[in-house]
Automatic annotation (TrEMBL):
This is Kinesin-associated protein 3b. ARM repeats lie at residues 556-596. One of its GO terms (biological process) is microtubule-based movement. GO terms for cellular component: axoneme; ciliary transition zone; kinesin II complex. InterPro entries: ARM-like, ARM-type_fold, Armadillo, KAP3. SMART domains: ARM, KAP.
Length: 737
């Protein structure tokens, strides 16, 4: 059967409000269900009233114009009733209330509020029992009346507002009842309540401040003293009631924030700013609620950014430490969430949280959270040095002493690894038997994290580095193919950091047979890149020793390094470290001759003179300067290439003109590292060596190298020599990143 619904609204009588400047419009709503033929099947009628407040009405108001405006905006009043509206407004305009009537009106209002508070309190007793919520939910009239009273009169009575919001809070405690709370817009009302109450609190505090200041200026004035005492008692009484209202309002909002869409609406109404302002209070229960709310909000980036814009960290800092265990723990967890932001970490250090957090390392209940915040702070190089001025490092070292080998918390060793990257921190860690204890435990347990900490300590020059001499043998003994790569990486990295002049590296390499291991690990793909890089760094370190450098050169390390350079030409770190090995080796006569005469290393270095990486250019230039000083032929080629580079713009112009007149160049004149093809049938001899004689046919003309004959070894054939411009930097080395 097809049915339709019909809704009919009929306007009723008009009247004036008994106490306010307002009109009361009575109306009737008739809801009907029509049958298929349009006949009336079922109907229901309800009466209602609408209050139209005209607060702007004054003796000078144009009543006629106001009446027209009321009729236009209120659809319940037909235009035919305009004269009646005008008459009622005229009555309101001239109605006067005597002082007695005003007192009676206020008394009635107070009685009404008391009556409503009593009735609401009875409903609250029912609502606090979850079994009654379902029944109350079906009583729409009662809930609607409570919502209407809250909406219209919450400013008149803090107690009444608190009770009504508490009733709806009972519903908000269960997700299935959130719909009814949203239906009556209680969440939006609570936001308005919180905002208004915070403003009222500012007014109260200012009034109290003025009276306190007046008393301080005239302490002998008894009247001012009494006024100040009275104002303080009044402030404390108002504050206690207000904080109850704030607590129940914020609890309700916290429950509703389970829905992220509702939470977004709260953010748009500045919920973060309101909560942070409440952090100024001293009521611990209220603070627990506010910090919990902020902690929930902080997991979203937008909310975290809002907290960064206000004084969140400053307000939280005063709560650390505190006697309330739950409040302290929640505050630390909120700070942990915020500490993922580098700007907020800086703010934490700025407001003095670092020593406070360090002091909590001895608190069993809060140590782990405090340690995680400290870990985040220790990540930032700006703040590593500030740990020196706390007792954090002694406490961490004591924890390492006391914990068994298998029971060291990850947070402890992680902070130690970060802090060890600072020179002064490393010195504190090595005080007493600190380094001995660390080495003993790391070697016994083969603890990679502990060895990483030791490796960070070993990088610093000064009094800590000589302490490692006693452990060079122990570390070298761990450099074996059968050990785990990650363990070998840390041990090798520690050894590579030991740039100690008196250390006999030749003896170390021979005694522990490390040269074959180092040479094997230089092969591309023989191990992870991190380990291969540490091998290169290790070779650079031991090459400071004359005898050790000669031994490595004779073992064929240099061709292996060049092969690795070919394979890792896109990795600036590899390129820089390999060039540094060449730099160390050209210091020694034996290895200098090998590099200059028996390898193609100088050609690579010439190409790297103009690399995009500044560090590579610097090491390269220093190495080439030494080569040029000891070998005249290479010196001329290096000088020619430098001259060519400094006149590069002019050369580009010349080459561009030639390109327009002739065929394209074989390769571009840029600073890229092109692929290398150095082999027996390529540009170099089969033994991998390049002699300065190779360039004997290259004559510099205006800074450019022009070939006077054909190309050697047939790299380029079928081209006229006059059409080819050999750009030395492109002839030898690969593309930079």
């Amino acid at each position: 059967c097809q049915t339709d619904k019909a809704l009919k609204v009929t306007a009723g009588s008009l009247d004036v409000h008994p106490t306010e400047k307002a009109l009361v419009v009575h109306y009737e709503v008739e809801a009907s269900i029509l049958g298929e033929g349009g006949g009336h099947m079922l109907g229901e009628r309800k009466e209602g009233q609408k209050i139209i407040r005209v607060k702007s009405l004054s003796p000078s108001t144009d009543v006629g114009a106001l009446a027209k405006k009321v009729v236009e905006e209120c659809k319940l009043i037909p235009s035919s009733r305009l004269p009646q509206v005008e008459q009622l407004l005229y009555y309101l305009q001239n109605r006067k209330s005597s002082p007695v009537e005003g007192k009676i009106s206020n008394s009635l209002q107070m009685c009404l509020c008391s009556f409503l508070s009593l009735g609401s309190a009875l409903i609250l007793q029912l609502a606090r029992n979850p079994d009654n919520l379902e029944e109350l939910l079906h009583n729409e009239a009662a809930l609607g009346a409570l919502a209407r009273v809250l909406r219209e009169d919450w400013k008149q009575s803090v107690e009444l507002a608190t009770i009504i919001i508490y009733i709806f809070f009972c519903f908000s405690s269960f997700s299935q009842f959130h719909g009814v709370v949203s239906h009556y817009k209680i969440g939006a009302l609570c936001m308005s309540v919180v905002e208004h109450e915070l403003k009222r609190h500012d007014v109260w505090r200012e009034e109290l401040r003025k009276k306190t200041k007046a008393y301080i200026l005239s302490p002998e004035n008894g009247s001012l003293r009494r006024d100040q005492d009275k104002a303080l008692r009044k402030y404390q009484g108002l504050l206690a009631k207000q904080e109850q209202l704030l607590r129940v309002s914020l609890y309700l909002l916290l429950n509703l924030a389970e829905d992220t869409r509702t939470e977004l609406k709260m953010r748009n109404k500045n919920i973060v700013g309101l909560l942070v302002k409440v952090l100024e209070r001293d009521d611990e229960e209220l603070l627990v609620l506010v910090v919990s709310f902020l902690k929930k909000l902080s997991i979203f980036l937008e909310n975290k950014n809002d907290m960064a814009e206000v004084d969140t960290v400053e307000q939280l800092a005063r709560l650390v430490p505190c006697d309330h265990e739950d409040l302290l723990n929640l505050t630390l967890r909120l700070l942990l969430n915020l500490s993922f932001d580098s700007g907020l970490r800086a703010k934490m250090v700025e407001v003095g949280l670092l020593p406070k957090l360090t002091a909590l390392l001895g608190d069993e209940n809060n140590r782990q959270v405090a340690m995680r915040i400290l870990y985040h702070i220790s990540i930032d190089d700006r703040f590593k040095g500030m740990f020196v001025y706390t007792d954090c490092i002694p406490q961490l070292m004591q924890m390492l002493y006391e914990h068994s080998e298998e029971d060291v918390e990850a947070e402890i060793i992680s902070i130690c690894i970060n802090l060890a990257a600072n020179k002064r921190n490393a010195q504190l860690m090595c005080e007493g038997n600190g380094l001995k204890m660390l080495m003993k435990r790391a070697l016994k347990m083969k603890d990679c994290l502990l060895m990483k900490m030791i490796r960070n300590i070993s990088q610093h020059d000064g009094p800590t580095k000589p302490l490692f001499i006693d452990y060079v043998g122990d570390l070298a003994a761990e450099i074996r193919a059968e050990e785990e790569e990650v363990w070998v990486l840390e041990c090798l990295g520690t050894l590579a950091n030991l740039t100690i002049p008196d250390l006999d590296w030749e003896l170390v390499l021979k005694e522990y047979n490390l040269v074959p291991y180092l040479k094997d690990r230089l092969k591309p793909g023989s191990a992870e890149d991190d380990l291969i890089l540490e091998v290169v760094i290790m070779i650079g370190t031991v090459s400071m020793d004359d005898a050790c450098a000669a031994m490595l050169a004779k073992s064929g390390i240099i061709p292996a390094l060049i092969e690795l350079l070919n394979a890792q030409q896109e990795d600036d770190e590899f390129v820089c470290q390999i060039v540094y090995v060449f730099y160390q080796m050209v210091f020694h006569q034996a290895t200098r001759d090998v590099i200059i005469k028996d390898t193609q290393a100088p050609a690579y270095l010439i190409d790297l003179m103009h690399d995009k990486n500044a560090e590579i250019r610097k090491v390269c230039d220093n190495t080439l300067d030494i080569i040029a000083e000891y070998d005249d032929e290479w010196g001329r080629k290096i000088q020619s290439e430098k001259f060519r580079f400094h006149n590069n713009q002019w050369l580009d112009m010349v080459e561009s003109r030639q390109a327009d007149e002739a065929e394209p160049y074989l390769y571009d004149n840029d600073n890229d590292r092109t692929d290398l093809f150095y082999s027996a049938d390529g540009i170099t001899p089969a033994d991998g060596s390049v002699s300065p004689d190779f360039f004997s046919d290259l004559q510099p003309q205006n800074g450019d190298m022009h070939h006077t004959g054909g190309y050697k070894h047939g790299l380029v054939t079928g081209q006229k020599a006059s059409k080819q411009h050999i750009i030395l930097s492109n002839l030898f080395l690969p593309n930079t990143k």
